Amino acid sequence: MAGNADWVLDVENGVAVRFPSPAQSGITSTTPETYWTGAISAWGVALAKLGHQVEQLPVGAALTYGNTSNPQDLANYSVFVVDEPNVLFTAAEKTAIVRFVQNGGGLFMISDHDISDRNNDGYDSPDIWNDLMANNSVQANPFGFKVNLDNFSEDSRNVRVSSTNPILNGSQGAVSQLSFHNGASMTLNPTANSTVQGLIWRTNSTQGNNLAMAASSTFGTGRVVIVGDSSPADDGTGSPGNTVYYGWTENASHSRLHMNASLWLAKLQ
Question: Does residue 142 register a pLDDT over 80?
Fold first, then answer.
């Protein structure tokens, strides 16, 4: 929630608590995404409509893995979504995240462009993601990619051709494009992780290891997806005074990509 952002499911009086309000039990097939007020509420409501449970990690809550005294320990969840982090993870938090994936968890990483430091602490999301992958106690570059320090806006249809890829052709529909509004690309490193693969690339890029806009990999028994811009998940709702934009409904592929990826991360497709 740093600066002009609300990358949470719901905000009540400026606070994102564990359980969004109103209660998730009230969601039906016709519930609008405005049921909750947060920039990724549409994503959460869509998952709830499929019968999944969603929660938030409140400010100040512990980010752990394997701590049975923490009710929100990552071991209790299938997928951890982190949208545009703006504070460096501690050494213990980095270990928790990487171990969570290594032992079967799903991690959805969302970055933003270079020089997008919303809380003015000297670090933005590309820095933070790259620090997680380069400086953790488990393995160097465990996921096989890094976020490039670039900034571009582009509508790309340079999508990996695959009729069987569950992220691009899953139960929620086929993905045919991805639109960035100031995002960053990724460089893939199959030497570090042979499973890494690009999903969508910049328009004029070859489908190789450079300039990927979205990518996936596996690590241990877990799975990882990264999208280089927060705009596609943005549903345009947020706290009063914050300016957010409609990316979720900008084209049909945005919701399909995020929903298919969520289900793939949870090993449901």
Answer: yes
